[in-house]
Amino acid sequence: MMSADLPSPKDTLRRPERRLRDRLIMAGLVVLFAAGLIGLAAATGWEETRAQIARLALWQGAVLLALSLVNYGFRGLRWHLFARRLGLVTTLAQDMRHFLGGFAMVVTPGRVGELVRMRWLKRETGWSFERTAPLALMDRASDLAAMALILGLSISLAATGVAGAVPVTILALTAAFVATRPRLLAGIVGLAYRLTGRLPRLFGKTRRAARSLARFTGPSTMIPALALGMLGWAAEGYAFHLLLGWMGTDIGLMKAVAIFVFATLAGGLTGAPGGVGGAEAAMIALLALDGVAMEVSVPATAIIRVTTLWFALILGMVIFPFAERISLRESHALEND
User: Fold this and answer.
1) What is the pLDDT of residues 303-319, one digit of tens each?
2) How far apart are CA 46 and CA 262, in angstroms?
3) Closest CA relative to residue 69, chosen from 41, 42, 99, 43
4) What's the CA gap between 263 and 259, in Å, rounded?
5) pLDDT tens string 64-79
6) Sign of dihedral through CA atoms 109, 49, 151, 79?
7) In angstroms, rounded to a whole number, what is the distance separating the alpha carbons of residues 187 and 206?
8) N or C: which end of the chain has fewer CB within 10 A?
């Protein structure tokens, strides 16, 4: 009779397979990360950006980074809220490690690399990707909803409008609505399967994941989730307003927040790594329409992107190896139990 403390022959055979699979997954994530990073560097021009950042006083740069940390902190709390609502028995520190560590993959195409958080959760809790997928979907949908609400509110309070903001707001709210309607999303998945007739197992898992969204849709979850998201994104919008003021241009708080959120949404909806290209173009164009000179709009755009997108990337890269090592340790502990 085999001891319960010893792995079975079947488990022993599977471990090399798991290690090979993990290495292939990690290699794929690294390739996606490298592709996104190359695109980001090409779009912003690191040398020019570094020169523009050097013009800021140290305390001003610290304020911008601190406001970005406020954004990440509130959204990390929202991730923890969703994790607890899903039924995961994870600590706040654990969820913050996963959330912030996932930023290392923020420049992967479509930000798919951030799904590494699901991989860490599987290692540490034993929950499959199918069970944790709603967490990632709700996080993205909540961002869309919070940003759309901020955009709509800032437009209504701004002295003048932001060109193209209404369609983007409607599109973001529609996407968020669909992503948080379990029956509607399950129906769309079912329709897609009937049209293709292929991959029944994948479509079945996706449909079950969509139905599990029902536990998130109550007001006790959605109201605090939206509040946390709005507070987080508003902090970065306020940072953009401060930056423009420091550069001698004051277009008003609401207009600055509207331009920042619109550009971020527009870039994200393109699916480009980190919204690169689309976000910068939208931000510079909207500032130009408001009469801001190019010698201000271009460096302001570069600086705010460095203190938000690049800062998130650097923060994620610092935390990523710790998250990876801890998840592997927890995975081994689960296997030995």
Assistant:
1) 898 899 889 988 998 99
2) 24
3) 99
4) 6
5) 999 999 999 999 999 9
6) positive
7) 11
8) N
